[in-house]
Amino acid sequence: MTRDDARALDRSDPLAAFRDRFALPEGVIYLDGNSLGVLPRAVTPALADTLTRQWGERLIRSWNEGWIEAPQRLGAKIAPLIGAAADEVIVGDTTSTHLFKALVAALRHDPARRTIVSEAGNFPTDLHIAEGAVGCVPGATLKVVARDRLAAALGDDTAVLLLTHVHYKTAERFDLADWSARAHAAGALMLWDLSHSVGAVPIDLAAAGADLAVGCTYKYLNGGPGAPAFLYVARQWQAALANPVSGWMGHAEPFAFTDGYRPAEGMRRWLVGTPSILAMASLEAALDLWNDIDMAQIAAKSAALFAILAEAGAAAGLACVSPADPAQRGSHISFRHRHAYAVTQALIARGVIGDFRAPDVLRLGLTPLYLSHEDVWRAGALLQEVIADEAWRDPAYATRNAVT
Amino acid sequence: MTRDDARALDRSDPLAAFRDRFALPEGVIYLDGNSLGVLPRAVTPALADTLTRQWGERLIRSWNEGWIEAPQRLGAKIAPLIGAAADEVIVGDTTSTHLFKALVAALRHDPARRTIVSEAGNFPTDLHIAEGAVGCVPGATLKVVARDRLAAALGDDTAVLLLTHVHYKTAERFDLADWSARAHAAGALMLWDLSHSVGAVPIDLAAAGADLAVGCTYKYLNGGPGAPAFLYVARQWQAALANPVSGWMGHAEPFAFTDGYRPAEGMRRWLVGTPSILAMASLEAALDLWNDIDMAQIAAKSAALFAILAEAGAAAGLACVSPADPAQRGSHISFRHRHAYAVTQALIARGVIGDFRAPDVLRLGLTPLYLSHEDVWRAGALLQEVIADEAWRDPAYATRNAVT
């Protein structure tokens, strides 16, 4: 792959026009959109309107002019990206809080099933929150096993299988339908964490028969730092499952101000308190970009970007820990290197922002909406330059550079 | 009280200069700052910087340039308003989620004490969340009693007394020190909901010996719609109490990415997921206003504004349900009227925004930072005009106007 090859790919890129819809940082090739997505240009005027007109002028009246429905309205905008119906998704709270609510509800669903099964090395908050959820249901336990022992861990006592669709470190992707079917064959519910896959790969929860899902919106969906997360509950479970964090926004009649809690119908029962409207406004503007996007084009471009960095990494002698088959991975590429932390810092010094994941992984995010093939080609060339640097051969390098 | 009297009060008002620091809506007298505070002018440039520079340019690097400490930094700015130390308060999540965490932690603290005591007619989410918390602790119960039976309800089984400092409807205020002492005398923890009092009345949690508190920041603190809430845990309980919603941001080492949860020291353990940085930026700019504010001046002006509306209400023949003694109330005034909903609407039509609380309360918020005495005098005159309207005498009025 030459720079000219990359440029040729850019000229025929059907997604090329989206780049202008983002405020890309000057002098930087940003390969960390899998951690924090870039600012969509539409967010700035949307927030200005939310501040000046909706909050500043309309004030409390804005609650009746669109704010109160924001959790459902944004949920309906995420739904097509995950193969859900508009009334199966709600936005608000954090991914962790949604996970807590969904896990406790799943554990309470069938008294004979009180075990959460999940993967060792899953994104930490999934396991941390699972510990907390187990503490809220008498007799509940958490079984955390290696990926190759997950199938064997499912049994008569399994309430829910909790998996992260795309692994945050390696980019390995579970097959949604296959694992949902395995959970169901064991009589368990299937809960997907889509944080590292929504907006990155095609997702069809309905086809997979998934029961529950949560996901982050500040990565590939570009909703802004700490943007509110989403929760999906398949329609057939909406009446049967109860939100353990029973706040007033999930009440059937929040403005009747009655003492006793009575859950709302549908997804609204999963709300807790009042969501940040500023955060919702930013996310909504970011979500509106996706109206015009074909996920098949995203997947195809992601594969092309991956191939460019995989080739560069191989030329540099790096071990790639992400799957070679695009269908088995998300939209980032990870390399293992003894001095991965220092390599990440050296790349940043050259204007390529990726990130380090302990203990030895360099992770580079591939976001087809705003990265060009040439960007990624240049990042690959700089990666080779960094790895060729003689300094790495000195065993004391990492120690010396640990806090740079 | 004449209009000239009100103008004279404005001329000698030590807080008068703060009015210019808010973007007050045109043509409106806004008496709903107890529900959603007015936009502080400083918020707009702060959010522009957060969007354009911090998110847009610095991107992921901003996490190391101030974002990650935002929950503690904002907590330290709220601390002086509630009589807490800087390291006893944290910001993030919603009031409801903080309540859930604090109540479950309190219920688990002593196995012999598994009852939450609270007040009938407390703000609904407090009671709804208490129901949810009780469901997460085996043997726990919720005892909800009328205000005059609270003292008798405390006993050997009480884990925590949950009270809202200022009542959202009537503005009645509990004595912080007195009720904290009663809870302690019964061997229980004291948890205060300060949502309707922070920024409205002087608060000294340390002097009261309070154990736990939560509060809302989008009312008198003007943090923006759905702004993140705060949690206070007195230092002596910080090591003993555990957060049931054990998310990664509360982990001792969130970026070590280890499977097992290990709570951070101090207040950080109460964090759950990633807070919205846009919401935090807005709130922080709003909090910075309070550096220069003397709460005694707020209290004195609140009392003067109350007196103006109390006189107007009395002249109109309205029943005031808020306490006459300023030390026994918050910073709003409520009147009971058979057609309170329609009265609220008629006031709004005349440019006076207050709100209705079912079934029969007209509630008018008094926010000394941006309301003048003359504003409130004019609101009082318009209130008298509305009440004098012959239409109210028609028994069919409310029915006809129920959906205006």
Automatic annotation (TrEMBL), chains A, B:
Cofactor: pyridoxal 5'-phosphate
Function comment: Catalyzes the cleavage of L-kynurenine (L-Kyn) and L-3-hydroxykynurenine (L-3OHKyn) into anthranilic acid (AA) and 3-hydroxyanthranilic acid (3-OHAA), respectively.
Subunit and partners: Homodimer.
Modified residues (N6-(pyridoxal phosphate)lysine): 219
Top-level EC class as recorded in UniProt: hydrolase
Keywords: Hydrolase, Pyridine nucleotide biosynthesis, Pyridoxal phosphate
Protein name per Swiss-Prot or TrEMBL: Kynureninase
Catalytic activity: 3-hydroxy-L-kynurenine + H2O = 3-hydroxyanthranilate + L-alanine + H(+); L-kynurenine + H2O = anthranilate + L-alanine + H(+)
Binding of pyridoxal 5'-phosphate, residues: 95-96, 123-126, 164, 193, 196, 218, 248, 274
Pathway listed: Amino-acid degradation; L-kynurenine degradation; L-alanine and anthranilate from L-kynurenine: step 1/1; Cofactor biosynthesis; NAD(+) biosynthesis; quinolinate from L-kynurenine: step 2/3
HAMAP family, alphabetized: Kynureninase (MF_01970)
E.C. numbers: 3.7.1.3
Family as reported in the entry's similarity comment: Belongs to the kynureninase family.
A single MF term (Gene Ontology): kynureninase activity
